[in-house]
């Protein structure tokens, strides 16, 4: 994966894990955040993100006088962000829909057919259905499972 996308973030530093730690008010959230920021700056990214988080001080008294109070504030903030994000619909591919719309508009503006730039969603849906037909009998639908040999 590192060769393909050039970086990998370990699971414990991904948003889903951090948001879950905040939701349950995990006492290790602050330490995990600090390790995660350090990891991103140094480990998998060479020098790409070096110093990116150098101004973030998770040990600041401005977050609270004790570790417990400093940990509670990011928990509350991250939980609120996660709750807000959860209100957005995941039923549709918003980014994909936007790409299709903009590609179609670009194609129309350049005087070319949109199909020269992308495959419209209805065509992709039809092609997907055709591919899955391999597991069906044309006249009767799904093929019967082959009997297992004993």
Automatic annotation (TrEMBL):
Mind telling me which Pfam families this protein's record contains? Answer: HsdM_N, N6_Mtase
Coiled-coil segments, which residues? none
InterPro entries in UniProt = D12N6_MeTrfase_N, DNA_Adenine_Mtase, DNA_methylase_A-5, SAM-dependent_MTases_sf, T1MK-like_N_sf
Instruction: Please state every residue range assigned to the domain named DNA methylase adenine-specific.
Output: 91-136
According to the UniProt entry, its GO molecular function terms are: DNA binding; N-methyltransferase activity; site-specific DNA-methyltransferase (adenine-specific) activity
Question: Which segments cross the bilayer?
Answer: none
Keywords noted in UniProt: Methyltransferase, Restriction system, S-adenosyl-L-methionine, Transferase
What does the similarity note say?
Belongs to the N(4)/N(6)-methyltransferase family.
Q: Which PANTHER family match?
A: SITE-SPECIFIC DNA-METHYLTRANSFERASE (ADENINE-SPECIFIC), SLR6095 PROTEIN
Q: What is this protein called?
A: site-specific DNA-methyltransferase (adenine-specific)
Organism of this sequence: Pandoraea horticolens
């Amino acid at each position: 994966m590192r060769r393909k996308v050039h970086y990998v973030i370990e699971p414990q530093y991904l948003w889903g894990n951090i948001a879950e730690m905040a939701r349950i008010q995990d006492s290790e959230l602050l330490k995990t955040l600090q390790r995660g920021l350090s990891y991103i700056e140094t480990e998998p990214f060479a020098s790409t993100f070096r110093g990116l988080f150098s101004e973030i001080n998770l040990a600041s008294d401005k977050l609270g006088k004790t570790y417990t109070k400093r940990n509670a504030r990011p928990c509350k903030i991250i939980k609120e962000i996660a709750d807000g994000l959860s209100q957005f619909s995941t039923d549709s591919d918003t980014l994909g829909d936007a790409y299709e719309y903009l590609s179609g508009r670009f194609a129309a503006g350049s005087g070319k057919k949109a199909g020269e730039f992308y495959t419209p969603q209805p065509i992709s849906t039809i092609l997907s259905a055709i591919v899955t037909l391999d597991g069906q009998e044309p006249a009767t639908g799904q093929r019967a499972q082959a009997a297992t040999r004993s």
